[in-house]
Structures are given as structure tokens and as C-alpha cells.
């Protein structure tokens, strides 16, 4: 079920025009920057987006201007993930075309992070998500004490039942409305 859902939503995301994405990304970024979770956070984790995803570049730029501690994911085998300080000069392209930090980097403990901006392909109205299938975020969020938020396009709202190990996102900002 999740495999078919991933494929369907990925196709829908890739069919969005650059103009549509630009409008939605600008609106979602503004909503995120105005959100109390963002305003109150000192340390924020986000992701480096694929072209078909919500574009995080403006969020990253503004978080740096706002002097927030900015973190990005570093993944390891077997679904393990840490969040490390964002240092663009240490990024290298790895499998799947993702940029990830290489070499020496600073890992922050979950208790040191105030807000995680969580990616995903599909979300239901309760904040449960379907990601790319690695389980990295569900494992990390299981013991994360801070806030979580996602920014998504309308086509990413889907009806599905979560698995017992799925962890919902606290707040989902969807273009045109929130739930």
C-alpha cells in the first residue's frame, strides 16, 4: 500500500509546474516563519530538498539571518540518523542524489533541538506521514522531545492508516490551509 502511495504522490509532485511550486513554496515558507514553533526555536533541523519537494532554501537562508542554530540530517545504515550543524562547505552528493555532510561535523542531541521541519511524501489529516521508506524520521522522532512541523502541497494529503511504529508530525502546514 505504501509503495503504491509513494509512487502516486511522487508522480503528482513531479507534475507540478515550476510556477505552481514557486507560489506554494513562498506561501508555505511565510507560514512557517510566522509560526510560533519557528519564532520560539533556537535550534532548528530541516532537510535539503529534492527538486520535487517543498524547497527549503528560503527557510535555511532566513534561519541563518535570524541567527538560529541550523541542522540537517546525516544518515547511516539501518535507519539511523543524526542532526548535524549545517555547514554548506562540507556537503557532498551521496546515493539518491542527496547532499549530506561529510568529514568532521557537529552532532546535536535530540534534547538540544527545538524544532524539526519534517519531510514526507504523503500525510493524512492526523499528521501521520509516508516518507521514502527508510524509517529514519520515525525512529528519530520516537524519542524527540521538541516540536515537529511539515510544509506540504495539497496533492500530498492522502487517506491511509498509519503503521504502529509511525510517529505523527505535530503541525502540518498545507498550501491554502492548515490542520
UniProtKB/TrEMBL annotation:
A single BP term in Gene Ontology: tetrahydrofolate interconversion
UniProt keyword Nucleotide-binding, yes or no: yes
Cofactors required: Mg(2+)
Keyword hit for Magnesium: yes
EC number, as in UniProt: 6.3.3.2
Top-level taxon of origin: Bacteria
Family annotation (Pfam families): 5-FTHF_cyc-lig (PF01812)
GO terms of molecular function: 5-formyltetrahydrofolate cyclo-ligase activity; ATP binding; metal ion binding
Keywords: ATP-binding, Ligase, Magnesium, Metal-binding, Nucleotide-binding
Catalytic activity: (6S)-5-formyl-5,6,7,8-tetrahydrofolate + ATP = (6R)-5,10-methenyltetrahydrofolate + ADP + phosphate
Positions bound to substrate: 48, 53
Chain positions recorded as ATP binding sites: 2-6, 129-137
Enzyme category, top tier: ligase
Family of this protein: Belongs to the 5-formyltetrahydrofolate cyclo-ligase family.
Record-given protein name: 5-formyltetrahydrofolate cyclo-ligase
Originating species: Streptococcus infantis ATCC 700779
Lineage, highest ranks first: Bacteria, Bacillati, Bacillota, Bacilli, Lactobacillales
Amino acid at each position: 500500500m505504501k509503495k503504491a502511495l509513494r509512487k502516486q504522490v511522487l508522480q503528482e509532485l513531479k507534475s507540478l509546474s515550476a510556477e505552481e511550486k514557486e507560489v506554494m513554496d513562498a506561501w508555505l515558507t511565510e507560514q512557517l516563519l510566522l509560526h510560533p514553533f519557528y519564532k520560539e526555536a533556537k535550534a532548528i533541523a530541516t532537510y535539503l530538498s529534492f527538486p520535487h519537494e517543498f524547497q527549503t532554501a528560503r527557510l535555511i537562508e532566513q534561519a541563518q539571518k535570524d541567527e538560529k542554530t541550523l541542522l540537517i540530517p546525516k544518515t547511516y545504515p539501518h535507519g539511523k540518523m543524526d542532526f548535524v550543524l549545517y555547514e554548506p562547505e562540507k556537503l557532498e552528493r551521496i546515493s539518491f542524489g542527496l547532499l549530506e555532510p561529510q568529514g568532521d561535523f557537529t552532532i546535536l542531541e535530540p534534547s538540544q533541538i527545538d524544532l524539526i521541519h519534517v519531510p514526507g511524501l504523503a500525510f493524512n489529516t492526523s499528521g501521520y506521514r509516508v516518507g521514502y521508506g527508510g524509517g529514519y524520521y520515525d525512529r528519530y522522532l520516537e524519542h524527540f522531545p521538541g516540536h515537529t512541523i511539515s510544509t506540504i502541497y495539497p496533492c500530498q494529503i492522502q487517506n491511509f492508516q498509519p503503521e504502529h511504529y509511525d510517529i505523527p508530525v505535530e503541525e502540518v502546514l498545507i498550501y491554502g490551509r492548515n490542520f
